[in-house]
Amino acid sequence: MTTATARPSDRRISPVFLGIVAVAAVTGWATWTGFAEQPGLAVFLFVTAAWVVSLCLHEYAHARTALHSGDISVGAKGYLTLNPVKYTHALLSIVLPVLFVIMGGIGLPGGAVFIERGRIKGRWRHSLISAAGPLTNVLFAVVCTAPFWLDALDGVPRDFRLALAFLALLQVTAAILNFLPVPGLDGYGVIEPWLSYHVRRQVEPLAPFGLLIVFALLWIPALNGVFFDAVDALLRSLGIGDVDTYCGFELYRFWQTDPLCTPGG
């Protein structure tokens, strides 16, 4: 086990994270006001920065919950600084999720921070640590969809509304995928402490391939249709229509345009 003495710098918010938040704020303002000469570029930067912020908070939630559950090593590892480059799997946690957003408009679950589970006692604590990350995505989804289900869209500019709809889609897909009880994903981490030792040993070799298995299954048209039908139904219940999410994605990919999504199109 790692032993470390807590230092103030272990919990100081990283300038890298603050910089990402600043990008999200400035480009969100530019999207709202129409200040940007290229609104699609502003939406791209706003959604990408906001998505990275949610990924950082997802990993932070895991680490913070682990800290309060007994793993005091997370501070020395830099997990409490919200710095994306400090996480164990920066490629899985940040780079790949952003690439999947660009390529397919889907919220990819990131790689979890490394928690020293041996320091933590009690099955409920282990489950809560795993659930903390995707619950952050749920909270983000609630915030992004609030203007829709509160019927508070009067005065909200079109581009900003579409950006929020697409960002909500990313958060909903990330939460659903993360909560799947598949080895390697947070959903399995929630139920793992309650499984027998024999079952855990049997499925342990699948953990590195869990995410690949999920996306292989989503590649099957029938399963892909069921998954996105469920996502669309959930978003519609929150007041976000298919056109909003589709045009939000098209606006995000500013290098291509669909006449359906242009004003007056």
Automatic annotation (TrEMBL):
Cofactor requirements of the protein? Zn(2+)
At the top level of its lineage, which domain of life is listed? Bacteria
Q: Which InterPro entries match?
A: Metallopeptidase_M50B, Rip2-like
**Topologically, how does it sit relative to the membrane?**
Multi-pass membrane protein
* A single GO BP: proteolysis
Which spans are transmembrane here?
Answer: 16-35, 42-61, 90-115, 127-150, 162-185, 206-228
UniProt KW Transmembrane helix keyword? yes
Compartment(s) of residence: Cell membrane
Its keywords, alphabetically, are: Cell membrane, Hydrolase, Membrane, Metal-binding, Metalloprotease, Protease, Transmembrane, Transmembrane helix, Zinc
Q: Name one GO molecular function term.
A: peptidase activity
What start-end ranges are recorded for coiled-coil regions in this protein? none
Instruction: Give the record's family classification.
Output: Belongs to the peptidase M50B family.
Protein name, per record = Site-2 protease family protein
